Amino acid sequence: MSSPHQEIPSTMKAVVCPHAGGPSVLQVKTDYPVPKPNDSQTLIRIRAFGLNRSELFTRRGDSGPAVPFPRILGIECVGTVALSPSGKFTPGDVVVTAMGGLGRAFDGGYAEYTCVPENQVLALKDGEELIKALGWETFGAMPEMCQTAWGSLFRALKLGKGETLLVRGGTTSVGLAAAAIAKANGAGKVVSTSRSLSKEGLLKANGVDEVVVDDGNVSAKLGEKGKVDKVLELIGVTTLEDSLKCVKQGGIVCMTGIVGNKWAFDGFKPMEHIPTGVCLTSYSGGNEDVLATPLAKLCQEVKEGRMKVQVGKIFKIDDIVKAHEAMEENKAGGKIVVLA
């Protein structure tokens, strides 16, 4: 880890998305101005950031006028405090920030530095020791992935100890994290889906008890006796109707992901598609959810080997185009992390 009082340069390396398009539109700039924080902001020296599908959608132009170009993308990052004008943080503090407009309303994590509102920054106690144990690549994978999994499981699904959970889209980074977090926090049984049994080893290494090959009709494979208490839907509307049939009366289905790349139902009929006594909810999460996630606790569980964080691929910031290509292919086998 660098000195906490390292001199702040005037320029930095940053990835600029000048307009909508494929991965190749992303441009690595080596002389981009380092942002200057005002009294209510914190300047962070970014060390790592995870890639998220929302950034893929934004890069394609799917976010519309909500994200104007050019923009430095990146809805999350981890690093150290470079400057805190108000004195709320100490230079060198290990910090996390995510959401709250990062990479959308203002420039985000695809850079060596970012400037964010100080009330959107979380400092980790004993952060330096955690980084020594986990490494930036593991820590960088955690903020958005863990808040999404944690919020989906405990805020939306209200998962209780001993309950059975089905993760639809189990090999996604959030799916793997959700399985690991659920098992570490007392879930009775975790069932995950995959399009192939070749991923069974990966899933079971992350806390999954049973793997079901997803052919679009998982409810038939589970049968009446195999119905679960809670379903975390990460594929989206392409499988949601079937997921609603997988849960017991009184159970909950939470739609969190759209890996299936379809945003809306065609002719959705709630009275027909939602079984009696089954609840349907969703989870998206925001900066307040990031700050509420027990990240220090989860880091400690990873450090002690009680929970696994599945890092799929690691890239340098110069290879951001390759990183986005890997995300497009959806075959990373875990969270994609970029080191800055």
Please describe the structure with a list of short key phrases separated by commas or semicolons.
alpha/beta; six-stranded parallel β-sheet; 12 helices; 340 residues; 28% helix; seven-stranded mixed β-sheet; globular
Q: Helix- and strand-based class? A: alpha/beta
Helix and strand run: EEEHEEEEHHHEHEHEHEHEHEHHEHE
Arithmetic mean pLDDT = 94
> Biggest β-sheet: count, sense, barrel?
7 strands, mixed
Radius of gyration: 20 Å
Indicate the proportion of strand residues.
Answer: 25-35%
Polypeptide structure, described:
- The protein is α/β, with parallel strands linked by helices.
- The chain contains twelve helices and 15 strands.
- It has helices spanning 53-60, 127-134, 136-141, 143-156, 173-184, 200-205, 218-222, 237-244, 270-273, 287-292, 295-303, 320-329, and strands at 11-16, 27-33, 41-50, 76-83, 94-98, 113-117, 121-123, 164-168, 189-194, 210-213, 228-233, 247-255, 279-282, 311-316, 335-339.
- The longest helix is centred in the middle third of the chain and has 14 residues, at 143-156.
- Strand 14, helix 12 and strand 15 (335-339) form a beta-alpha-beta unit.
- Strands 3, 4, 5, 6, 7, 14 and 15 form a seven-stranded mixed sheet that branches. The protein has a six-stranded parallel sheet with strand order 10-9-8-11-12-13, sandwiched between helices.
- Helix 4 (143-156) crosses helix 5 (173-184).
- The two termini are 13 Å apart.
